[in-house]
Amino acid sequence: MRTLIILFSILFSGTTLAGPDLYKVVYKKGDVSMTRQGESRKIFKGDFLISNDLVKTSPNSLVILGFGKDYRSRMKVGPNTKLNLEGKKEDPEEHNEKKTFFFLEVGNILVDYFNKDKDKNKLKVRTKTAAMAVRGTEFFIHATPDGQTLVAVRSGVVLAKHNDKPTGIPLTSEEGVVFSSDGSSGKLNPPQWYKEINWELHDLNQKIDHFLHGDEIEKVTLDELVSKVITINAANYDEMTLEGEPKKWQEECEKNVGESCSRLALYLLKNGKIKETKPIIMSLFNKACQAKEARGCVWLGRVEFEFGSKEKGKAHVEGLCEQKNAYACYTAWELEKAYGEDSKAEEFRKKAISIMHGLPNLDETFSQFEEACQTEDGQACLNLGILSEQLNKEVKAREMYTKSCDLGSGAGCSNLGYIMQTQGKLKEANKFYTKACFLDEAVGCYNLACLYSKDKKLDLSKQYLKMAVNGGYNDWAHISSDADLAALRSSSDYEGFVKELKEPKKKKE
After folding, report:
1. 349 lies in the same domain as 434
2. Looking at 38-137, which runs of residues are DSSP E strands?
3. How far apart are CA 230 and CA 233, in angstroms?
4. What average pLDDT does the segment 102-122 reach?
5. Greatest alpha-carbon span in the chain
């Protein structure tokens, strides 16, 4: 152990001749370490690092490295950062010309690169997502743990290129770009987070706090930049602005409400130009997925299928289906039906229904319900009707709902009423909803309230809404937004009526 300590001392400190692969520690604050060939130690001001050393900073720490000729180029490595000093090596993308490489695994770096030969790219910074070719400039790069990358340039030229794209995005003064695993945000001019960057690198007499980046930089991810990217890039797709419901979804998405992220993504998918908005859409669906919103996870594959790689998108959706995501199986059914084989599509639909109802084998269950329905089992007939409707067997579904209704199933009557309503047969719908309601099926009562509201018979609408709520229907979010109840909600006494409905019943003395 003693020998190793001496060797480390010789390698890292003292007077060392400046070479192309040396990096001098000109400033250090807090706990900063390096790893070389599997061995780690703390580093100090005046140390020299060499190619392939891994630099790691802790929270509230940073280190400034000098490199290049006379160490005139400077790099500030911010808190919570892992940076590999790859050194000089050939760049296969540019005729094997030698360049100085850095790999930013996570965290942020700020660079003031001195290059007297400014017509050539002599420096290259890589992340998991992108590569930045540099001539001579001041620039900032932040990489998140999942590979998202943001770049900002203060002066000079940086060619920022996504790893999977053939061409790059040239950035100059006060321009930036955000990369995700899927693509880029498009050029941002200037990025909203630009003001969070502390560009100071050379005046070492200032307080250390002056060297730390703003707190927002440490928290920034592509998902958190979505709203800013939308605003900045509005000119790229017909000056789109968010207001009304989309604005509300945006605000809720920023609070990690998964459903709102998906709704906003679907809105952009419908109203934006997919070329410009795809990275944002994918980021929103990814955020929804991380919030455990199943639809967002599935739409990541659906968007990839429609606007990227069909093979990759399909594999993503089918993989989620294998994980018992019913919505994914339905999506796989839609994709297979539109672009593949009908027989395979049907298998995905059956799998979706099986997962949704917790059935080990749909065909076997279907047969069991048929047998039970023949014995006048109203519940079995209802279940058979539900499965038939979901399998698009409309005649069979109507037949089974009718039989279950005749056998006293309120849900069967309600479902039969809904079929009549969709066919425009409102009198028959009313009849079956009424029977359902009197069989204590709350949904039947609610649907009657909707019919009477649309018919402007508000007293009857209130009566059946009250019966629905008393029967257990308590989806107030739906009640407050259902267009079929608009007339009832506009009545002068509606607020008092609803307040009374929501109040807990007083116990009788």
Report:
1. no
2. 39-42, 48-50, 53-57, 62-67, 73-77, 82-91, 97-112, 123-126, 130-134
3. 5
4. 80
5. 96
Q: Are 329 and 348 in contact (CB under 8 A)?
A: yes
212 to 33, 64, 149, 198: CA distances (angstroms) = 18, 11, 19, 7
Neighbours of 407 (CB within 10 A): 16
| pLDDT tens per residue, range 125-134 | 999 989 998 8
Domain containing residue 213: CATH number: 2.60.120.1440
> What is the tens place of the pLDDT at every residue in 424-466?
899 999 999 999 988 889 999 999 999 999 999 898 999 899 9
Q: How many domains does the chain have?
A: 3
The Cα 264–Cα 248 span in angstroms is: 9
CA gap 137, 200 in Å, rounded: 14
Rg, Å, the chain Cα set: 32
* CA–CA dist 213, 222 (Å, integer): 18
Joined tokens for residue 29: 């604050």
> Which range marks the domain in which residue 461 is found?
362-502
Of the listed ranges 113-122, 307-316, 442-451, the least confidently predicted one is 113-122
CB neighbours of residue 212 within 10 Å: 19
